[in-house]
């Protein structure tokens, strides 16, 4: 059977979700491990902001060249490479040295970059146009699923095995998934082009094409800020709740899991709405305003707020700041030229990850200078509200292969 056979329609979605969830788990485990790791390494818990920045700096590099790599070697092979790199990064973290943590961040970042271009390459071949946003949103539930696993499983693994044992255990799971996906490689890598060139001079061409297409450029630049806000939420929520609000690590991890669950629900709901109800660009603008308002709300709550109050804000924050990606990626796939979905996705994510590189270190700097997590969430919340208003007021731009309209 071919990948486009209806009987095989669910398989690519299941595989891409599983790979995305495990790679996201590798990237999001560090913020949950940060308090425990700080005790054994002597580093301040705030090092996680730098760690996340290095992860996504490396992801910027690998996602920019992912289009050519996916076309040449196939999306499944590149997914396997991603899993092995991220698993190796977790093993490096278990060394519990500054050099090991730097190596860990680089390896995880290099592995994180190609995953979404690879999955988009698969899904654009297997998804009917009228289900594009929902299918891409379903695939992107792998990100909050990975975060949910990080929030729920990692504290328990740390309790039983220590944080280094937890890192080794998670790394082994990623290597196992890489081995499992070998069985389906002949089916989904059948369109690979071994003659596709891999010259350094080609690296910037997809980015130039995105920046030259107004609709893609708007989405990519706004995703810079969306990505920054998303990673600030997932990277600093646990630290904020434990250090500034005095909650236990398990309670704070559970609230992070609430945000991730809301992100899963949000991605499904927003994907359906973008296909059936509202123009994707307008929906993304609304989500920008909501995540901005949630960040401001988190900054303004007092120490007497009950746990349920934090969980409610986290749910709204997660549904918006974690839930936007599927609509964004489906819109990029719609607007990309035929045969260039992987390259356009990689170039757009280069801008997204750029925000992630800048966002967490800037947030950490604001907190360090002011000794106030609320100030960080307040500043980023105001900025995201402005970005959301821009998307809503400017309207769809011309350019791309298909208009951005509900089916």
UniProtKB/TrEMBL annotation:
Record keywords: Membrane, Transmembrane, Transmembrane helix
Annotated ranges, domain Major facilitator superfamily (MFS) profile: 1-399
Transmembrane region(s): 46-70, 82-110, 161-180, 219-241, 247-270, 282-301, 307-329, 341-363, 375-393
UniProt-recorded name of the protein: MFS transporter
Coiled coil spans: none
Xref: InterPro entries: MFS (IPR011701), MFS-Transporter (IPR052952), MFS_dom (IPR020846), MFS_trans_sf (IPR036259)
Gene Ontology molecular function, alphabetical: transmembrane transporter activity
PROSITE patterns per record: MFS
Keyword Cell wall biogenesis/degradation set for record: no
The keyword Glycosyltransferase is annotated on this UniProt entry: no
């Amino acid at each position: 059977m071919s990948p486009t056979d209806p009987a095989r329609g669910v398989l690519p979605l299941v595989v891409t979700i599983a790979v995305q969830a495990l790679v996201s788990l590798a990237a999001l485990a560090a913020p949950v491990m940060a308090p425990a790791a700080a005790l054994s390494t002597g580093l301040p818990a705030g090092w996680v902001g730098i760690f996340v920045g290095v992860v996504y700096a490396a992801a910027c590099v690998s996602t920019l060249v992912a289009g050519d790599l996916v076309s040449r070697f196939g999306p499944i092979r590149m997914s396997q490479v991603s899993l092995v790199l991220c698993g190796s990064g977790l093993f490096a973290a278990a060394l519990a040295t500054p050099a090991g943590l730097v190596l860990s961040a680089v390896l995880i970042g290099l592995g994180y970059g190609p995953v979404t271009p690879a999955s988009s390459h698969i899904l654009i071949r297997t998804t009917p146009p009228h289900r594009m946003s929902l299918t891409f949103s379903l695939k992107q539930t792998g990100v909050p699923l990975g975060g949910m696993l990080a929030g729920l499983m990692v504290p328990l693994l740390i309790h039983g095995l220590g944080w280094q044992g937890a890192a080794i255990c998670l790394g082994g799971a990623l290597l196992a998934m890489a081995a499992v996906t070998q069985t389906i490689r002949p089916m989904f890598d059948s369109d690979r082009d071994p003659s596709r060139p891999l010259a350094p001079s080609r690296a910037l061409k997809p980015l130039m094409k995105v920046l030259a297409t107004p609709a893609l450029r708007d989405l990519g630049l706004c995703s810079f800020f969306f990505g920054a806000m998303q990673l600030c939420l997932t990277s600093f929520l646990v630290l904020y709740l434990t250090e500034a609000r005095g909650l236990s690590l398990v309670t704070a991890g559970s609230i992070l899991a609430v945000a991730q669950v809301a992100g899963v629900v949000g991605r499904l709901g927003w994907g359906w709405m973008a296909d059936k109800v509202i123009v994707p660009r307008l929906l993304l603008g609304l989500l920008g305003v909501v995540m901005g308002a949630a960040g401001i709300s988190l900054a303004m709550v007092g120490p007497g707020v009950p746990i349920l109050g934090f969980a409610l804000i986290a749910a709204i924050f997660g549904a918006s700041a974690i839930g936007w990606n599927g609509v964004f990626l489906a819109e990029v796939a719609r607007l990309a030229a035929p045969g260039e979905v992987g390259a356009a996705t990689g170039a757009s994510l280069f801008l997204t990850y750029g925000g992630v590189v800048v966002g967490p270190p800037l947030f950490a700097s604001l907190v360090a200078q002011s000794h106030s997590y609320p100030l960080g969430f307040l500043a980023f919340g105001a900025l995201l509200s402005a970005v959301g208003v821009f998307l809503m007021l400017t309207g769809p731009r011309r350019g791309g292969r298909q208009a951005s309209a509900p089916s």
